[in-house]
């Protein structure tokens, strides 16, 4: 476990005092008393993280990663683990460099950066080309990327390689879409076969613009205590049923995943499905922070929709039950875009991010299944996916459809609360 921020032997009070962002994580994960200052002092000072997690029957390593994600999201400037732009390769000719930017999934960002650092050192020595990069935590959102692109009107002003999950950035016709249409990006990842986890899903972009190196699956975490006499939902069809209205926590703060959910619900269940999803909402969350609303101390969501990784914190015997939807875990793709006119210089960088090494970090450390055919994603045969499909993606305006879905969703919420 990374002990840069805390150790298992520290008390909950010590951790929350040093890192206030963790209070929301604790209070949403079985320790509601941590949100009350007096109770946090009396209770938190007398229990270590190790003991607390043993009471909840939780996986210390996985839970610690969630705490770290909340800390790094709250303190983005404090990351000293290869967090920002680096200028290296002093021996490279002036201007002979490639620039890589993107957002990496929080739970695997550090090991990915460590692997990238090792790769980069060898690459720069071998090619005499400098790599300049910014690879930040996905929790930071897209604002900083948009600032990089604000004044860009043609391909000469954009970085050479981008990585990000979801549909928000790469499919907006006002941003990347116009560059994609002009043939600025090429998919240079050419696996000889498909990863067995994605057989028959056709994840390869038929138009050759977008590379997909992995996916973020959305699954259910069910609180059986809060469920009452209702059946455990086993599908997205179930989630939209009337009995689960005002009972579901959705990752509204995690735009990549939330918008993938909206798009898939819209495709498969129509406008009515998006309306039902809005009526199901009890609370919104970012997965690293879990439930943040004041209501959670009085009423907790019966179902939380979140990335598959976060179910790793739940152990057998817990009141929390992880459910992989029978109609498929909705996928938020992890895309990579590479500039066509820079492919010769980028080829080895592209191969690194599409490699088995990176795929195993994504899949084994983060439970973000990899598309690399050499990676065993360790999924059960019955674990299916709900994927938009390229025919559908290219048949609609993604950005406009997301806006339409958000409007339907918000209006449905207002109707429920009477606003």
Topology diagram in text:
Layout: H1 12-18, H2 22-28, H3 37-44, H4 49-56, H5 60-74, E1 97-104, H6 109-127, E2 130-137, H7 143-149, E3 161-165, H8 173-181, E4 185-186, E5 211-223, H9 224-227, H10 236-239, E6 248-250, H11 255-280, E7 281-286, E8 290-291, E9 303-307, E10 320-323, E11 329-339, H12 343-353, H13 356-366, E12 385-386, H14 390-395, H15 398-417
Helix pairs in contact: 11-15
Q: Could you give the count of β-strands?
A: 12
**How far apart are the first and last residues' alpha carbons, in Å?**
46 Å
Oligomer state of the chains in this structure: single chain
Task: Domain count, please report it.
Answer: 3
Helical stretch count? 15
Rg, Å, rounded: 22 Å
Could you tell me the CATH topology label of the largest domain.
D-Maltodextrin-Binding Protein, domain 2
Per CATH, the architecture of the largest domain is 3-Layer(aba) Sandwich
**Helical residue percent?**
25-40%
Biggest β-sheet description: 12 strands, mixed
Tell me, rounded to a whole number, the average pLDDT.
84
Task: Supply the CATH class of the largest domain.
Answer: Alpha Beta
Structural class: alpha/beta
Give the full name of the CATH homologous superfamily of the largest domain. Answer: Periplasmic binding protein-like II
Shape descriptor: globular
Question: Uncertain regions: pLDDT < 50 for 5+ in a row?
Answer: 76-94, 286-297
């Amino acid at each position: 476990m990374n002990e840069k921020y805390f150790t298992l032997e520290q008390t909950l009070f010590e951790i929350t005092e040093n890192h206030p962002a963790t209070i929301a994580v604790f209070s949403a994960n079985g320790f509601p008393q941590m949100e009350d200052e007096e109770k946090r002092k009396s209770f938190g000072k007398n229990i270590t993280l190790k003991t607390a997690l043993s009471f909840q029957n939780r996986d210390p390593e996985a839970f610690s990663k969630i705490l770290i994600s909340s800390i790094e999201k709250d303190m983005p400037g404090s990351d000293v683990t290869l967090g920002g732009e680096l200028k290296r390769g002093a021996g490279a000719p002036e201007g002979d460099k490639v620039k890589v930017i993107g957002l990496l999934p929080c739970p695997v960002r550090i090991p990915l950066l460590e692997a990238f650092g090792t790769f980069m050192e060898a690459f720069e020595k071998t090619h005499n080309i400098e790599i300049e990069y910014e690879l930040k935590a996905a929790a930071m959102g897209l604002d900083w990327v948009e600032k990089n692109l604000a004044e860009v009107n043609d391909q000469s002003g954009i970085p050479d390689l981008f990585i990000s999950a979801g549909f928000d950035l790469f499919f907006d016709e006002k941003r990347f879409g116009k560059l994609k249409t002009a043939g600025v990006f090429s998919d240079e990842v050419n696996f000889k076969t498909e990863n067995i986890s994605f057989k028959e899903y056709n994840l390869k972009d038929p138009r050759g613009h977008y590379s997909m190196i992995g996916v973020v699956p959305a699954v259910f975490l069910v609180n059986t205590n809060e469920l009452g006499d209702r059946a455990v939902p086993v599908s997205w069809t179930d989630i939209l049923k009337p009995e689960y209205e005002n009972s579901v926590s959705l990752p509204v703060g995690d735009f990549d995943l939330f918008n993938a959910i909206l798009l898939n619900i819209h495709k498969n269940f129509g406008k009515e499905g998006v309306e039902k999803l809005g009526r199901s909402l009890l609370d919104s969350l970012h997965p690293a922070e879990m439930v943040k609303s004041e209501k959670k101390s009085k009423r907790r969501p019966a179902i939380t929709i979140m990335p598959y990784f976060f179910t790793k914190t739940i152990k057998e015997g817990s009141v929390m039950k992880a459910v992989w939807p029978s109609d498929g875990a909705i996928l938020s793709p992890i895309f990579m875009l590479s500039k066509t006119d820079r492919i010769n210089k980028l080829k080895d960088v592209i191969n690194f991010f599409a490699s088995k090494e990176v795929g195993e970090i994504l899949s084994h450390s983060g439970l973000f299944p990899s598309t690399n055919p050499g990676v065993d994603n360790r999924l059960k045969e019955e674990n299916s996916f709900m994927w938009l499909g390229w025919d559908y993606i290219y048949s609609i305006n993604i950005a406009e459809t997301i806006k339409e879905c958000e409007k339907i969703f918000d209006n449905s919420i207002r109707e429920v609360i009477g606003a």
